[in-house]
Design brief:
By secondary structure, this protein is α+β, with helices and mostly antiparallel strands. About 30% of the residues lie in helices and about 25% in strands. The strands form five sheets. Strands 1, 2, 9, 10, 11, 12, 22 and 23 form an eight-stranded mixed sheet that branches. The model has no long low-confidence stretch (mean pLDDT about 95). It binds flavin-adenine dinucleotide (FAD). The site of flavin-adenine dinucleotide (FAD) has 38 residues, from helix 1, strand 2, strand 20 and helix 10.
Length: about 400
Amino acid sequence: MRQSCDYLVIGAGVVGVGIARELAVRQPGSKIVLIEKEPAQAMHASGRNSGVLHAGFYYTADSLKARFSRDGNRALTEYCDRNGLPIRKCGKIVVAQTEKEVPLLDELMRRAERNGVELDKISEDEARRIEPKVRTTGFALYSPSTSSVNPKQVVEQMLQDARATGVDCCFGARYLGRSGSRVQTSVGSIDARYVVNAAGLYADKIARDYGFSEGYYLLPFKGLYLYSSHPKGSLSTHIYPVPNLANPFLGVHFTVAVDGAVKIGPTAIPAFWPEQYRGMENFRLSEFTETLAHQLGLMARPGFQFHRLAFEELRKYSRPFMARQSFMLADGFTEKSFADWGIPGIRAQLVRKKSNTLEMDFVIEGDDRSMHVLNAVSPAFTCSMPFSSFVVDRIESLQ
Ligand SMILES: Cc1cc2nc3c(=O)[nH]c(=O)nc-3n(C[C@H](O)[C@H](O)[C@H](O)COP(=O)(O)OP(=O)(O)OC[C@H]3O[C@@H](n4cnc5c(N)ncnc54)[C@H](O)[C@@H]3O)c2cc1C
């Protein structure tokens, strides 16, 4: 590894790669080093997500998510087209499971209008013409610009671009700590004029080394998927329920993957340590006790109804229970239709200590020496290009 650099970016997920790429394009000649603890890019959330390019109609107009989803969707769609990366322009239907949910469809319509996102309110018949299996009550919404990509391929291409513009990428290099501008990693130390922390599930800890994230901590939520045994292409579009707009998760839904495979998920099950994908994988006692203490604290204090979410979500470890979630969205599926669990992903969800609430929007904190991406929650994949540009604007304005 180099002895020194202008920018050290920590984490080769879509956010870290996006920021490194943006810095290299804007500041040619700068020495930019990207470190990643894993042997390759996108081994965590960025390579384990649903791969959906969201349209941007869930978010209130004053949020960063609203600002970046519409533009991010367009930017990544063009990027995939230009680079020959597979993209399935399958659209998405949002259904009302009961009549009570119809007003929520109207609220989403209002948000779409404010955010400048194309969204159509359609009748039950029109919904069935788009996808004959869909179940809805009276009305549904149709989003034509929602699509699917292969997230790993997208990040790989973005990393190739970053390298081509001069970013030095160092895999198997874990950030360990810092003293002054000197950063210690598992492969040696480096003097970094500016540090950008995009470390996903570990971003809060790294931020604290720099005096940030004092009012927050990250909590891991596990997203499980169940694959349908129906042939690829058997569903023409994504099918989503109306989400609970009070929390940042979208509820179990049908996703059509880029290759046409149909899956349901992801769950938002509280995980007991940050990278708890399967069994005791990546177990560290200190992380387990810290996560558990945070979860118990959330249960004990007013604020976010953690116990309710935990109770609802833990049931989704049961395959029949998960399968049954899908019956409310589409006909033609049975418990036996869902045999195989897919690769799980874990969300790094920021919690605000003072109010015990989940942060709904992206959060960054920093100064003239370092910048920390603390809440790159969904749909940060969709938003990655304009979001990276926003982070770099902030970095440049502070220096
Ligand atoms: C189940 C699930 C489904 C989702 N579905 C969608 C979707 O359909 N559409 C969408 O837009 N978004 C979706 N998201 C959200 C999206 O995947 C994330 O918002 C995005 O990937 C976050 O990217 P990131 O780069 O911040 O994090 P990550 O991809 O987690 O990257 C962080 C990187 O930092 C590295 N790192 C951590 N600690 C260190 C250290 N000490 N030293 C060096 N490196 C370190 C990690 O190894 C990792 O590679 C989903 C997320 C999940 C979990």
